[in-house]
Amino acid sequence: MGYPRKLTRRFRAFDNFAISFTIINIISGIFSSFGFGMAAGGPRVLVFGWIAVSVMVLFVGASMAEIASAYPTSGALYFSAGKLAKRHRGAWSWYTGWLNFVGQVGGTAATGYAAATFIQAFLAMQWPSYQVTEQRTVLITAAILLVQALANTYTVHLVAVMNRISVWWLLVGMVVIVVVLAVEPSHHQSASFVTHFVNDTGFTNALYGGMLGLLVTSWTFTGFDGSFHMSEETVRATVNAPRGIMRAIGYSAVTGLILMLALVYAIRDYDKEAGAAAPPVQILVDALGTSTAKVLLLIVIGAMLFCGLANMTSNTRQIFAFSRDGAMPGSRWWHSVSPRTRTPVKAVWLAAACSLVLVIPGWWSHTAFTAVVSVNVVGLFLSYAVPIFLRLRLDDFQPGPWHLGRWGKMVGRVAVTWIVISSVLFMLPHASPITATSFNYAPIALAVVLLIATVWWFASARRRFQGPVSYGRPDEVAAMDLI
């Protein structure tokens, strides 16, 4: 790919799969967004929307996997965009990289904040006198980011071990939650309950309300580009990285559907639980009692913490690669690698600091924080769409060992179409009446990011950034390898 090796290849096939599976994290995604789905479509959209969106995400993942096999680098999406573009390679690479960077940072921040919210819910259940405040949520999030940064500072081997543990935590945890919800409650909803439709979004158009409910699944299925970003640290990356992407999406789709059904059928008092501060927690309490609910809540919190750790790892590799090509302020700092641990330590702390900056508005306003981190999904999926779109325009695309053959362009067209639709949904109003507290600030936040990137591009970046840098011929690059 034109770069000297600075990172060690310690990730095996399972490790590469584990990072995307952990970032997707069905437990974290479903529990953090289930309440929104209860209002936007109810069980019908939660269950059947999960199936439909999972299929669409498989199309996106397959297209990304094909590109990952051809360009297995830490730069992932922005690198492949620069290579696949016919013209203006620097610009395509620039915008893809910044969309991916903002989406990655937003994901790390959002996961940490969600974990902090559920930690406070547990503390309030354990000690009724405990007062849940926005300030404490921010402080707990900061502590979580600190611990995750410390874990990522040490060797790639440690991160790989943590991700292996996280896979089993997710799978065993999911089985425990599902079995307890299936066996323990005295009664469940009838089989036909999955067709129950609810529209409490405030919008009179039921179709619009149901379409908004698809965001529950879209929010969950983010971050599977983590396998792509870890390519330079994965053995046989041209095969194991694309397989990691596809396995992570496929296994998450199946296990997530099982977990979704378990929660839906455990609902007792729909209106009461949908109106609770944390609807899935209230469902657990009503169905199982406080003691059992607290145990299951610990499983959920653990899953969220593992998810944040993997998010930060992926985020760090994107920063490392983007800086390696001189696309970030202080690039010399951020692409340096510790000689002792062979990890981009400075990039780790930049990822943690940027995530904390996004969390800070939550000190004063939960709405402001939600608006900023909404860019996570839009930024990530738009960065997914760009290289797929460019691959569709390229007649002489050279695939890697893992490819879709003659189905490549058809799959890519479906993937780009779905990304456009889901991105529009994320930027439309999510509740009515539209007020300062219910307004969806995501399009404004995204516009600000794109405006800054555009001004920066035309002011100076276009003269010095021409896309991915090549350090020389393969033999010259091999002679530069630092490990």
Automatic annotation (TrEMBL):
Transport keyword on record = yes
GO molecular function per UniProt: transmembrane transporter activity
Principal location class: membrane
Q: What membrane topology was assigned to this protein in its record? A: Multi-pass membrane protein
Segments traversing the membrane: 21-41, 47-71, 92-119, 139-160, 167-183, 203-224, 245-267, 287-310, 347-364, 370-390, 410-429, 441-459
Q: Which GO terms describe its biological process?
A: amino acid transport
User: Entry's InterPro entries?
Assistant: AA/rel_permease1, Amino_acid_permease_CS
Q: Output the PROSITE patterns linked to this UniProt entry.
A: AMINO_ACID_PERMEASE_1 (PS00218)
- Where can this protein be found? Membrane
Q: Which UniProt keywords apply?
A: Membrane, Transmembrane, Transmembrane helix, Transport
Q: Has the keyword S-adenosyl-L-methionine been applied to this entry?
A: no
Q: Which GO terms describe its cellular component?
A: membrane
Q: Which PANTHER family match?
A: AMINO-ACID PERMEASE BAT1, OS04G0435100 PROTEIN
Question: What is the name attached to this protein's record?
Answer: Amino acid permease
The record lists the organism as: Streptomyces buecherae
